[in-house]
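A reminder from the course coordinator: this example appears on the midterm review sheet, so study it carefully.

Given structure:
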């Protein structure tokens, strides 16, 4: 009798959550983008969110909350109601890199947030200013070794993905190159075109127009596979540096206490949206490769990225803010 009573009580607890998951969503979903409108994170979120709304039958409302390299908006989700109606598509920087760069990060990505799915990856590409006398990775490394401390690499700021990719390159190739931090991609591109800096790793979509115009030299893609729009540009692995894997990525997260059944339903809606041909086509033009994996797979990937970039930060001697 006691066993039966416990079973009944357990079912009574589980049934509301199961029913809620079956009905979910029954009202608009707030999708936080922790960056201003117009950037890659925003473009990806709007394309996926629009299709999610069509599949789920409820509006997906984009809420841009920029600040602190994505931390402010991501924190809003960590502290949000765990009901599936406050979620985010946020960046590698906010979820993985900031864990090593900020002493007082207001959330723990693995404890305060629930991984829903890895949405997209955008590879970093290493390019050179047109005046640099090198056109391949081997030529660039040889030049850097012949002129220690005389070549520099730009970044969009200390601790940014371009900065860490450059540090990973410096350590892997065992070369002495100087970091020059900027505030954003626009001034980096201005000075790269103006020959004030020699090289940079940047998101592929930012670099693509200038590469296609022949104004900068593409050296390698920091991804596992070549990019269709630049089939002649090798991956870093093909140039002899498989450890230089640098991809900006964007993942969907929810508050940690969101019920598993709702997370599962949210995952299915999101993954179906990412598999839509129109969404794939739109984001391919941005250099983004859609992923759409399980919550467990994304959680494992997130832990590996935190560990990977934490080691780079430590090895490069980058101090937390």
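Designed residues:
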């Amino acid at each position: 009798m006691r066993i039966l009573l416990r079973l009944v009580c357990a079912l009574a607890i589980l049934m509301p959550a199961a029913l809620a998951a079956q009905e979910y969503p029954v009202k608009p979903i707030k999708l936080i983008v922790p960056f201003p409108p117009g950037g890659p994170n925003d473009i990806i979120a709007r394309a996926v969110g629009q299709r999610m709304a069509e599949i789920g039958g409820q509006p997906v409302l984009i809420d841009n909350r920029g600040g602190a390299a994505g931390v402010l908006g991501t924190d809003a989700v960590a502290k949000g109601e765990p009901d599936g109606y406050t979620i985010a598509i946020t960046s590698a920087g906010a979820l993985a890199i900031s864990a090593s760069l900020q002493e007082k990060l207001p959330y723990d990505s693995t404890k305060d947030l629930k991984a829903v799915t890895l949405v997209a990856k955008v590879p970093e590409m290493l390019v050179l200013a047109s005046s640099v006398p090198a056109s391949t990775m081997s030529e660039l490394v040889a030049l850097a070794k012949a002129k220690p401390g005389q070549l520099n690499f730009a970044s969009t700021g200390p601790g940014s993905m371009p900065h860490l990719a450059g540090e990973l390159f410096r350590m892997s190739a065992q070369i002495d190159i100087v970091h020059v931090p900027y505030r954003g991609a626009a001034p980096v591109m201005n000075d790269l075109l103006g020959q004030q800096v020699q090289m940079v790793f940047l998101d592929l979509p930012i670099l693509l127009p200038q590469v296609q115009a022949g104004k900068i030299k593409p050296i390698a893609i920091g991804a596992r596979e070549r990019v269709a729009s630049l089939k002649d540009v090798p991956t870093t692995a093909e140039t002899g540096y498989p450890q230089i894997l640098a991809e900006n990525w964007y993942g969907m997260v929810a508050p940690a206490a969101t019920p598993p059944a709702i997370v599962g339903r949210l995952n299915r809606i999101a993954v179906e949206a990412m598999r839509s041909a129109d969404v794939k086509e739109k984001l391919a033009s941005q250099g983004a490769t859609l992923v759409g994996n399980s919550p467990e797979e994304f959680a494992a990937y997130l832990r590996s990225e935190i560990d990977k970039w934490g080691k780079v930060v430590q090895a490069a001697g980058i101090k937390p803010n």
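The mean pLDDT is 91. The chain has two domains: 29-121+248-316, 123-230.
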